[in-house]
Amino acid sequence: MKLIECVPNFSEGRDRTVIDAIVAAIDAVDGVDVLDVDPGEATNRTVVTFAGAPAAVEEAALAGMATAAELIDMRHHRGEHPRMGATDVCPFVPLEDATMDDAIALARRVAERAGAELGIPIYLYEYAAPEGRRSLAEVRRGEYEGLAGRQDAPDFGPRWNERSGATAVGARPFLIAYNVNLNTKDRRLAHQVAQAIRTLGTPVRDAEGKIVKDEHGKTVFEPGRFEEVKAVGWYIDEYDRAQVSINLTDFHVSPMHAVFDACRQEAAARGMRVTGSEVVGLVPLEAMLMAGDHYLRAQGTTTGVPEAERVRTAIVSLGLEELGPFEPGRKIVEYRLRGEPGRLGSMPLGDLVDAVSEATPTPGGGSVAAAVGALGAALTSMVAGLTHAKRGMEDRRETMEDLGRRAQELKDRLLRAVDEDTTAFEAVLTAIRMPKRTDEDRDARTQAMAEANLRATTVPLEVMETAVEVLELARTTVELGNPSSVTDAAVGAECAATAVEGASMNVRVNLQGLDGDTTGMRERHDRALTRARSLLAAIRETVDDRLG
Fold first, then answer.
1. Does 98 have pLDDT greater than 90?
2. Which single residue of 27, 148, 203, 467 has CA 20 to 30 Å from 8?
3. How confident is the model at residue 340 (pLDDT cuts 50, 70, 90)?
4. How many CB atoms lie within 10 A of CB 154?
5. End-to-end CA distance of the chain
6. Which contiguous run of DSSP H or E holds residue 80?
7. Which of 279, 278, 311, 277 has the alpha carbon at shortest distance from 293?
8. Which residues are catalytic?
9. What gap in Å lies between CA 512 and CA 503, rounded to an integer?
10. Which among 245, 274, 262, 247 is positioned nearest to 184, based on CA atoms?
11. Is the pTM higher than 0.90?
12. How far is CA 352 from CA 138, 364, 371, 458, 547, in A?
């Protein structure tokens, strides 16, 4: 599912009534989650963070902007932070499964609608700007007071709105606010580290130690080690230590772990030690996984381990719990959006078996098929990891690294399907029990039955196709894996094949309840079943050969 984050900044940080009304307008849109509300009294500004599917985020952004335009009068606004409108800035950030192109398209839709429907002058910035990247500082030059005299026309909307000002709408990568802790109280030393790593760099000095200026009187800088990094050094009373305060404006260009390691090097060169770090606000899952994988690889260990272990490695390696607990469920943005894990997929094995054994229709065969498939993927990943670590099999490490990672992804997908299958069948039961007293009742019941039956067919069909992918990986572990683990690889293949056969039965029985053309689904079913049986036959033959 595509997820987009939106981080609008509203020019009100003191009147809680106004702030609450804006947040309520955003939160009222179905399909978005408000993740954070951060008001600032001195800046007279509130930063709201929310996320969801693109269509829901579009409506929520416009709802927030409309409420802000109604309640905030920029003619009376004063604050320390630069600003030019009631909704000062509204960036869109791609998250899980979304791309920058998705965020750009969404930003431009919102910009066009806000200009036309709300009468707000809209200036596009960053990746959404039509002429390419345009900095927010450039867009906001002159602030609110300078809008009336600006020569450049806004991208959308009227040239001037005296009450609400103008809004900058853009698309950008996720900005990670990140602080690195030092074993010193000296802000000056911390700032030296910040200058060494940041994009801007360090002021150049002449032989006499004076800062060098160019022909326009501006300071000349020696560029720092990283692109897309802003940083300063400061002292924090609360922690009784100095920190390097960093904004990672594109963590794909300059990853969190690379900047952390560079801070360690620069601190050591100045007689200091990095003691840990902290994430301010939220962090994307991808950034944490990149860090965990970096440190696992540095140890010569496979990254084909459970996602939770990769995240934990990042937390420990970056020292993210030095100043307080780092709770992944609260700090990682995708985890906040996913909510609690599925009840069945996260159950202890004994509890799941007990739940299946009860005289209730769910969880049933479909959920069991998905669970067995997940076990097959888990065994496949296990064998890949054991092969990766096996002395004398170094030539297969890269293959097993990729295979183990993929098996972990398939395992997680199948675990989610354990709950999805039960939910889908419960929706069928709910539809069956709907009233049939009137024509309206019957029409509603028919529609609900059609939707529920389609989902009840789609879930096991996806389980079949996923389990076939597990079988493809299992064949490689049987052929190339650690000889001591060939039977584990074989059991993994048998589990995956059982998942395909079991899910096939559910697909076939549920197809009977579908109206319309089901040719495409039947073809997918037959293709997956045929491929699974062919793979299993080949795997069994290989296992027999290897076992003698």
1. yes
2. 148
3. low
4. 22
5. 47
6. none
7. 311
8. 81, 421
9. 15
10. 274
11. no
12. 58, 11, 10, 23, 33
